[in-house]
Structure formats: C-alpha cells, structure tokens
Amino acid sequence: MGAVLVHIDLDGDRPHPASLAALAAGRAVASSWGATLYAALVAHDSTDRGMGSTAQVVSAGSVPGIEGVQSLLSRAGADKVVVALTDVIPVPLWASVGIAWQGVLDHLRPRLVMFGADSPSAAELAPRTGARLGARLLMRARAVGVEDVELRDRDGGYVRSSDSGAAVVQIGGPQPLLGAEDDVDLVMLVVPGGGDERIELAGTSPADVTYHGGAIVALGDDVAGDAAIARDARKLAALLGAPLVTRDRVDRSTPLAPEVMIAIGNAVADLGGASSLIRIAQAAGKGADGALTGPIGGSLSELVESLEARK
Amino acid sequence: MTVAVWLGSAAPNRTIRWLDGALATAMKFTRTDDPPPLLAVAAGDPTWLDLAADRASRAGVPAAGIMIDLQLDYLGWAQVMAAVARQINATTILVDEASRAERFPEVAALAELLDAAQLTHVVALSPDGQTIHASRAHGNVLQTVRIKGSAVIGIRIPGAPIEEYPTPTPSASMRRLDLNSLGLDPIVLGHRSLPPRSTQQPRRTLERVTEHLAVHVVPRRGS
Q: B143 and A201 in contact by Cβ < 8 A?
C-alpha cells in the first residue's frame, strides 16, 4: 500500500485548521487502507549547504518552532512528518513552494495526496499536484465509512482503497480528530532550486468582498430587518467563514464568483457559472443548486442548527 | 509572444459574462505598440463552439474550435489545449475559470504540460511590455503579482452585465481544428474520459442542503 500524504499549511506557528481536518481524514483513510500517513510542510531555511541539484535528507535543520508543529501533527494522527526546506520564503503560490513540494512528492511517491480545501495553498498546489502525478482530482470531499473508509465528493466522485492510480483530494469541512501518540519521526528534506522567478509577489492589500472565492452569505432586504433572521445569517456566515453581504453592497448586477453563495430572502447577484447557489426563500426560483423553501426564519434556523451539529 | 484564451469544453453555466470578460481581457494585449497574435480556443460540441466563436468575434478575438464528443477530466482537456498552445507557440494562456467549476484545475494542468508558470484566481490583469501585472484574490487579501515569461493564468474577470444574447449561428470565421492535426490520438485521449455521472437534482431538503454545505464549514481552530 502506497503512502498517504497530507499537505500542511502553517497559520503562524501552528498547522492551519483546514490542514488538520485533512490530516484527520487522512488518518481515517490510512488506518483503513493499511498505509503510512505522512504530514508534510514547506519551511524556509537559509542555511547554505552547498548542495547539488537533488533533494537530500539532512539530520538537522533550523526551523523555528518545528517541535511544536511536529507534536501537534503527531497528536493529530501523522505517522511521519516531512519538512521540505527551501531557501525561498514560502507564500501560498505554486511559484513559491512548487519546487520544494515536488521534492516531497519525488521522495515519497504517494498514492493519495490530501489538502485542506480551505487551506491557503490548496487552490494553487492541489490541481498542480494532480497534474504532476497524472492523478484523479476531487475538489471538496470527505471521508466516509468506518472500516472501509473512502473519500467522496458531492458530485459522485470517490477514491477507494481498491482503485488503481493516484488521487489528489481536497478535504472540506471539519473532520473528527482521532488522536494519536505524541511520538513521530521527523524527516528534514533539503530541496534545492528556489522558486519560479517568472511569478513575483509584489505586495498584498485587503480584498473587496466581491472577490471572495469561498462562501458568501447574502441577506435580502426583505428579511434584513428581521432580528432573528439577521442573527442566524451571521451565525451561518461564521460557520462557513463567509462574509455576510446585504443589498446595499451586492445587487443583481454585482459580479460574484464564490464557490458557493447562500441567498437568504430576495438576495441576488450576478453569479459566475462555477458558483453553487443555495437559496433560502419562500420559493426556490431559477438556477438554484439547492433550496429551502417556506418560512425563511424557520428554514435558516434549522440549517444553522444542522450545520452546527456537524462541527 | 502569442496569447491564447482557453474558453473550455462546454458553455458557461448561468451567464456568459465571464466568458466575455476573458475575451475582453485578452484584447488588452493588443493595445500595445507591438500587439501579439491572439487566439481564443474552445472544444466540445458544435453548439458551444458556435457560441464561443460568436462571443469571440464580437470581442474582436480570432477563434479556433475543436469538435470533440468525449467527456474528459481536467488533464484530458489540458492535453487538448496544450496541443493547440504548442502549435501556435502560445506563451501566455488565459483560462476563464469562473464560468464552470471544472475549469479551474485545468489552469494547473495546462501549466504542468507546458512547463509554464501558473497563477490562479486572477481578478485584474494589465499587460505592460514583457511584464503582466495581475491581482490575485486570496481569501480576504488581494495579492499584487508580476508575471514574466511563459504563464498560464486563471482569470475570473467579468464582462459587462448581459441579460440575453443573440442565438449564435455557425461561424464561418472560426478556425476548425481536429485531434489528428494537433497530434492527439482520440483513443489515448479517451483514457482521460470521465465516467458518466447522473445529473444532480436540486437539493430541496434540509438534510441534502446540509450535506451540500457541510464541506464548506470552517474547521475549528485548534481542533
């Protein structure tokens, strides 16, 4: 059985919550399939090692705070932790960390690679990893099953232990942590080559809400004055890590291309075709991928309760 | 430098606004002293190719179409577009990643096949000689990025609002390409076929809507 590899993004000095959710799903899969679960991250190391052009395992690296990360990843279920050391400052772009990540892929030759769907690097790294491996790709999936665990997305795609070929899967939503021992091997892998100089990150600034690519909750002006609905809309937005927008910010001609928009009441926007639309309204209307119809307050409240139970 | 726009293998869901936006963005490359050759490329069924050619023609972008009746995965379609890119020596490829969900991973697959740099989620773009200035949406942050050299750029830039558009007619100006002329074997390409999936009915129950949204729930910090 090949390795199961989970990419770990860091959020400050801790693993990103979405990466930990992917690791939890990876633990369930690896235990079911009898595979070794690797957690791998890319870290900066400016030490000049005078190396050649190939990746090398080194006995010691100088990554501040790695002990804490290693301990957390161990307790979250990793069998082994791999740290790919690169001389570039990692930013969540393939151009920055792609060469180092490729070093990890070459070193482990995984059969299954997992990313947290909402982790910072997933959008840039997951599809490129799939292309490198010639792998199938699931964009938002979760682990299902108890003994024969498989990964399933919403469109009927799945990854099972009996499949041939490699797969790359982005894990969405929270996953139950299984817990494990605080004792795990750490491998430091020095990957020469730096970053791709064709892409240069020149700066960052706050993004307008209309550029949000994850989930957006839109509250119609017909229900914005209802205190209970407004409160539940805020809860829903918090659950989904989504901005909450109202009619004064987004109207029918506002172009939006999030992954999913939840429109409450008469909220509308000019959605891109890649977006999924869930409507909570008196009537479903056209073009919705899902809808809860009838009294809006009751539907919204039930949905929030139902999602909170999943967390 | 040749600029290509990959419009994909099926008509946009919901609206053609982002298709128009991709074409309008490509036209920015022609507003220079030395405008590069430009080509919009689509693949798939004839109805979609006619629509793509019609919108490209209205935007002033020459178009090419490859009629294919296969349903391929992201790597399969990337192989098709990569073959076109090689044939026309395209060094900058724009991909309309907002019109259909399955288009987004084709950015990375194309970049991999062409050994090009990749940049996804670009919401604004401005060519400036040999450099392209781009703004990339990343969560609640906008990254300012400079691109030099060969690159595949996934864009989500809308065109003007559009309620209805004229029904396209078969285009005489569209350049017709086929797999053989691109050096692709349909049987080999067929290995990237997607298994047929049942059409998703809209989710109308609390359980099904919850299931749909559960994969968007943010994991707890420290969980």
A: yes
- Asked if B90 and B4 count as a contact pair (C-beta separation under 8 A), the reply is yes
CA distances from B156 to A18, A50, A226 (A): 24, 42, 34
Q: What predicted TM-score, i.e. pTM, was given to this entire model?
A: 0.94
Element (H, E) at A217: strand A215-219
pLDDT reading at A184 higher than 80: yes
Contact B121 A141 (CB under 8 A): no
Kindly report the CATH class assigned to A210-309: alpha beta
Band of residue A200 on the pLDDT scale cut at 50, 70, 90: very high
CATH 3.40.50.1220 domain locations along chain A: 210-309
Task: Please give the pLDDT value at position B223.
Answer: 45
pLDDT digit string (tens) for A162-182?
Answer: 888 899 999 998 877 766 677
A234 burial level (CB within 10 Å; 0-12, 13-18, 19+):
middle
Please state which CATH number belongs to domain A4-190: 3.40.50.620
Q: How is residue A98 written in tokens?
A: 């792609």
Average pLDDT over residues A134-159: 92
Q: Which of A206, A259, A289 sits opposite B203 (nearest CB)?
A: A289
User: What is B107-122 written as a DSSP string?
Assistant: HHHHHHHHT-EEEEEE
pLDDT tens for A252-276 read 899 999 999 999 999 999 999 999 9
* Structure token digits, residue A28: 């369930």
In chain B, the number of structural domains is: 1
3-state secondary structure (DSSP) of residue A75: helix
Please tell me if residue B162 touches chain A, with a CB cutoff of 8 Å. no
- Rounded Cα–Cα distance for residues A39 and A59 (Å): 18
Question: Distance (Å, rounded) from C-alpha B20 to C-alpha B152?
Answer: 18
Nearest to B153 by CA among B129, B138, B132: B132
Long-range CB contacts for residues B132-136, cutoff 8 Å, separation at least 24? B132/B92
The backbone torsions φ and ψ at residue B189, rounded to the nearest 5 degrees and listed phi first, read: -60, -35
Q: Do B58 and B175 meet the contact criterion of CB atoms below 8 Å apart? A: no
What's the pLDDT band for B69 if we cut at 50, 70, 90?
very high
**Angle, CA B191 vertex, CA B186 and CA B194 arms, to 5°:** 105
User: In the predicted model, what is the mean pLDDT of residues A231-245?
Assistant: 97
Name the residue facing A137 among B105, B116, B206 (closest C-beta). Answer: B105
Q: Any residues with CB less than 8 A from the CB of A196 and at least 6 apart, and which?
A: A94, A95, A96, A98, A99, B117
Residue B172 within a domain: yes
Residue of A21, A212, A273 lying closest to B15 (CB–CB) = A273
